[in-house]
Amino acid sequence: MTTAAAPETAAIIVAAGRGLRAGGGLPKQWRDLGGRPVLARTIEAFRRAPAIGRLVLVLHPEDRDRAAALIRPEDLIVSGGDTRAKSVKNALEALVDTNVSRVLIHDGARPLIGLDLIARMQAALDGATAAAPALPLTDALWRGEEGRVAETLPRDGLWRAQTPQAFHFAPILAAHRAYPGGAADDVEVARAAGLDVRIVEGEEDNLKLTVAADFARAEAILARGRNMEIRSGNGFDVHAFGPGDHVWLGGVKIPHSQGLVGHSDADVGMHALTDALYGALAEGDIGRHFPPSDPQWKGAASHVFLAHAIGLVRARGFRLANCDVTLICEHPKIGPHAIEMQRELSRIMEVEMDRVSVKATTSERLGFTGREEGIAALATALLVPA
Questions:
Q1: 332-362 pLDDT tens trace
Q2: For 54-95, how does the pLDDT look when each residue is reduced to its tens digit (9 = 90+)?
Q3: Positions at the binding site for a divalent metal cation
Q4: Which residues are known binding-site members?
Q5: Cβ contact 19:28 at 8 Å
Q6: Which residues bind 4-CDP-2-C-methyl-D-erythritol 2-phosphate (predicted)?
Q7: Do residues 309 and 271 touch, judged by C-beta distance below 8 A?
Q8: What is the CATH number of domain 8-226?
Q9: Is the pTM of this model over 0.70?
Q10: Cα 369 → chain centroid
């Protein structure tokens, strides 16, 4: 008997607009914000949200090549329409016949959304068909004419709308199919279909980037966060001895009476360090990025893996503060080669040598390393904002 897949929540990120009011000569979702495209930061926020099972990116056809570095194979890519409502409808239609039961619809130009808000929007759907984040208006509200104040308006009950706006899938799909067009957001579409929309407290930092001043404010928010976010990861790897006359450790070829067995060059130290970097980014391990089932990686030099991992570190806006690699073996002796390994690892990662530690220990003749059946390695890496 076939078991149906569990319902999941999809995040629809709408990023097909051509808005240039913020300057920079690019649509705002592709402008730089703290060293990365705005859209890259928006996507990352939803990748980090535990309950988001699927990402749907709504892009302008001209932007598909530009987005290639941000996309994963499991992401769903949809072409935008000539209005925001049509773009969202295209995304919803692409989810028909999937197991998606809930959707969060978010502006690609809101890159500073927090995980807490995403979680609150998901939780709101436990007791409502639709929900949207908003902030109450606190400033005086005027109507102007010819540059002068013509009228003071009451602000009681008025809210500033934000995204992600959250819906059960079937009702919002039906609402978009029935809507004639021209909606400011998905709440307008939902209300036109008779759906009740619950208001959830939004976040001041969840601003929508529209004009140049918004980018300056966003940079200030990022600078504040950079002082707080630190990431660490650890890695562990083991390779058995086999036939050979040398081993690769830390990027250094060391003569030995045996070799190490592995799909690649079996550099156990570099593998542990690579996994530590991936782990700090919540990016899995080497096997996710370089599957051992893929024959192109058979016998590959491990510096390829390490260079890829440190490249991801930089792409995500971090740098390596320091790393520490410990090799566990009886033989070969690591001490005479430790400085050379330190130098090689720092060269591959393009960091200063004093950020890289390589050391060794034995297991006091205990276990498989003590019986000289193989070598183990563990590594720790600390990442800080660039």
A1: 999 999 999 999 999 999 999 999 999 999 9
A2: 999 999 999 998 898 888 888 999 999 999 999 999 999 999
A3: 237, 239, 271
A4: 237-239, 263-264, 271, 285-287, 361-364, 368, 371
A5: yes
A6: 237-239, 263-264, 285-287, 361-364, 368, 371
A7: no
A8: 3.90.550.10
A9: no
A10: 37
